[in-house]
Design brief:
Distance between the termini: 53 Å
Shape: elongated
Structural class: alpha+beta
Number of domains: 2
Length: 479
C-alpha cells in the first residue's frame, strides 16, 4: 500500500500523496526487451505546498499536477514584494505580500487617564527590531502559502520543497522529497550576515537510490551594486552531499560580509542579491529529468556606512564601520488606541489614508504615499529641504486654522507625509512630476506630535533607513 507523507503547516495537516499511488503498479510489459530504463524526475515546489486531493491528481495526471505546482513556484516571483533598491530590478517580484511578524510594541505609554501626560514621563521609544529567527519561526511563518517571511530587516527566511519521482521504464516505483529553508540574520551593528540552511522532512518510499543521489547546495551572489564588490565568506556551507548524508546532518551555515570602502556615494552603499542554488545529480545508472537545478528564491542583502546611522566609525576600528541589513521596506506602526502617546497623530494619518477628501489642504485626487509597496516613503536627511517641507505644512495650518492654530503653544501642525521624507509637503516644489497638495496637515496636541516624532526617529535609526530612493518604508495604523 502506498505510504502518504504528512507535514504540518500552521497547525493543519497537509498530506502529499506519493506519485506511486496515482498509477497502478503494473509490471513491465512482457514484450519489453533490453535493460530497464531508470529515471529520476525532479520538481521544485513551494515550501509546505498544499497538496491536491487524490481525485484531482488522478484526473489531471501526476506529472501534470506536479508541473503546475512547480510553475506556480516560479510565477510567484523570486524576490520578496517588499524588496527595495537596485536588487528590486534583478528578478520578478512576488505578487503577494510576504508574511511578516507582528509589529514591535513601543515602551509602555505613561498613564493618560487623568488628562495630560506627566511632564516627567519619558518620550515614546521605538524598540529594537528582531535579529534572530529559529527554524520553527521560519517554518511557521512560511506555512504552506508564503514564499518569504520577514521578521524584521535583520531576520528573514524563505524556502522550497524538492520532490523526486523514481521511474522504471516510465512507471513510478518510488518517491523522495526534502525541504530547504534558509534563514538570514544580522547581529546589531555587524557587517556579517549568517545564512542558516535547514534540510528537513527528508523522506523516501518505494524503490529509490537516495544513498547515491548527490545534492549540491551553493549560496551564490550573482550580482552586486556597484559591480566588483569582494566578499568574505565562511561558515559550514553544505557543499555537495548525498541525500542520506543531508538527512543525518541537517543544519549548515554560510556567512557573508562586505568590507567597507567598496560602496557608492558618501554612505558607502553596497547592494547585492543572494541566491541559494540546489543541483541534483542522479545515482549511477539513473537518468535525470525535470528541473535539474533549483534556484529557490533570492534574498537582498545591503551594507552601508552612512554617517547619520549607528557604528559609522566602527568604534575606532575603520574596518568594522557601518553594518548590514536586508533591502526590504520596513513598516512604521503608530497606534490609535486609547492611551497611546502618538494617538492624535495616528488618527490623523488614518484619516489621510481612508478619507483623504476630509483632510486639508483640499485636493480632489489626493492619495498619500506610504500605504503599499508601490508607493513607499523615502527618508530625507537634507536639512534645507526638510525645512521647506515644514514651512509648507505650517502655511496650510495657518491657511485653514488661522495664525492661532497652536492654541498658545499646546498644539503643533502635524503633517503627513512626514517632513523628514522626500514626499513631504514641499515635494511639488522640488519634483515637477509630484502632485501639488498631495499631503495632509492638522493641528494636534504637542505631546502626541512629539511622541510620534520620537518614534519616527527611533524607527529610522534602528532600521538603518538610508536617505534617498534606494531605501524606503511603509506606515501602518493599529487600532
Amino acid at each position: 500500500m502506498p505510504i502518504p507523507w504528512f507535514r504540518h503547516a500552521r497547525g493543519r495537516t497537509i498530506a502529499l500523496l506519493t506519485v506511486a499511488a496515482l498509477l497502478p503498479a503494473a509490471a513491465p510489459s512482457a514484450a519489453s526487451t533490453g535493460p530497464d530504463e531508470l529515471r529520476v524526475e525532479t520538481y521544485v515546489l513551494p515550501s509546505g505546498a498544499s497538496a491536491l486531493t487524490f481525485d484531482e491528481l488522478r484526473a489531471a495526471g501526476a506529472a501534470g499536477s506536479l508541473h503546475r505546482l512547480s510553475d506556480d513556484m516560479r510565477s510567484k516571483g523570486r524576490l520578496a514584494a517588499e524588496t527595495v533598491g537596485p536588487a528590486a530590478s534583478y528578478a520578478p517580484l512576488a505578487t503577494d505580500p510576504s508574511a511578516v511578524a507582528p509589529a514591535p510594541a513601543p515602551a509602555p505609554a505613561p498613564d493618560r487617564t487623568h488628562g495630560a501626560v506627566t511632564r516627567f514621563a519619558p518620550m515614546a521609544t521605538y524598540p529594537e527590531p528582531a535579529r534572530t529567527m529559529t527554524y520553527d519561526e521560519c517554518r511557521n511563518g512560511l506555512g504552506s502559502t508564503q514564499k518569504f517571511f520577514i521578521k524584521s530587516r535583520f531576520a528573514v527566511c524563505s524556502g522550497a520543497t524538492f520532490l523526486q519521482t523514481w521511474l522504471q521504464n516510465n512507471r513510478p516505483v518510488g518517491e523522495s522529497m526534502f525541504n530547504v529553508r534558509v534563514v538570514g540574520t544580522i547581529p546589531l551593528n555587524s557587517r556579517k550576515i549568517t545564512f542558516t540552511y535547514y534540510f528537513t522532512e527528508m523522506q523516501s518510499t518505494g524503490r529509490t537510490a537516495t544513498s547515491a543521489m548527490k545534492v549540491a547546495t551553493k549560496g551564490a551572489i550573482p550580482q552586486s551594486w556597484p559591480s566588483g564588490v569582494r566578499y568574505t565568506q565562511g561558515g559550514t556551507p553544505p557543499g555537495t552531499r548525498t541525500f542520506d548524508e543531508l538527512k543525518r546532518q541537517r543544519t549548515y551555515t554560510h556567512t557573508v560580509s562586505a568590507a567597507p570602502g567598496q560602496g557608492s556615494s558618501s554612505s558607502d552603499k553596497v547592494f547585492s542579491v543572494y541566491e541559494p542554488v540546489v543541483t541534483i545529480t542522479p545515482p549511477p545508472g539513473w537518468k535525470l529529468g525535470g528541473e535539474l537545478t533549483g534556484k529557490l528564491f533570492i534574498l537582498a542583502p545591503r551594507w552601508d556606512a552612512a554617517i547619520y546611522l549607528a557604528n559609522s566609525t566602527g568604534g575606532g576600528t575603520p574596518t568594522h564601520k557601518g553594518a548590514a541589513t536586508f533591502s526590504y521596506l520596513p513598516t512604521l506602526t503608530y497606534s490609535a488606541k486609547e492611551g497611546a502617546e502618538e494617538k492624535a497623530v495616528a488618527e490623523h494619518i488614518r484619516t489621510a489614508f481612508t478619507k483623504p477628501l476630509d483632510t486639508k489642504p483640499y485636493m480632489s485626487a489626493k492619495n498619500v504615499p506610504g500605504q503599499n509597496t508601490k508607493a513607499p516613503l523615502h527618508r530625507l536627511v537634507q536639512k534645507a529641504r526638510r525645512d521647506d517641507n515644514r514651512k509648507a505644512a505650517v502655511k496650510q495650518c495657518k491657511r485653514y486654522w488661522g495664525d492661532g492654530y497652536a492654541w498658545g503653544g499646546t498644539r503643533e501642525c502635524d503633517e503627513y507625509p512626514f517632513a523628514t521624507t522626500y514626499e513631504g509637503a514641499a515635494q511639488a516644489d522640488h519634483d515637477s512630476e509630484a502632485k501639488k497638495f498631495n499631503f495632509s496637515v492638522l493641528p494636534v496636541a504637542k505631546a502626541d506630535n512629539g511622541a510620534a516624532g520620537s518614534l519616527l526617529l527611533g524607527f529610522y535609526a534602528r532600521n538603518r533607513l538610508l536617505d534617498g530612493l534606494d531605501d524606503g518604508f511603509l506606515v501602518r495604523i493599529a487600532s
